[in-house]
Amino acid sequence: MKKIAVLIAVLGASIAAYASNIAVVNARQVMDEYSQTKIIYKALDDKRKAMEIEISKDEVAIQQKQIELNAKTSVTEAEKTAYQTMVNNFQKKITTKQQELTKEETTKMQEIQTKINTAVTNVAKAGKYDLVLEFNAVMYGKATDITTAVITEINKGTPAPKK
Questions:
Q1: What is the pLDDT of residues 47-84, one digit of tens each?
Q2: Which residue intervals of the chain are DSSP H helices?
Q3: pTM for the full model?
Q4: Is residue 106 part of a domain?
């Protein structure tokens, strides 16, 4: 146990000696204040709403078909099969649309994360920081908060979102 404590102390001292110019950045705040994030969230939300409207129309058609079949005294196998095919296609459509939306959202968030990483790197290099940590990962210590500088850097040359 003592060996582990000594190892941790030596490692901590080594890191502290190497990284004397340490900065922190609040990545969540950068994400929230990046002007393009709001635009992307709105576009994704608009797509989600359009998808819900489309699915809702299909759902109404299925419900009408079910009411129509329930009103009949006798339903043929062909009508049952056609209805089941309609339901199956509807379920596949929902799954496909959700997957497409999730894929697009993931892609957009990765693009934003890449831009955040680039902005952090640019600010860190300009400020000659040896180490940049996530703001929430630091419990104690002296570090410069570069969040505002990163927000300024990432928003350079990007249009502000329309209100």
A1: 999 999 999 999 999 999 999 988 988 989 999 999 99
A2: 2-18, 27-33, 35-71, 77-126, 147-154
A3: 0.70
A4: yes
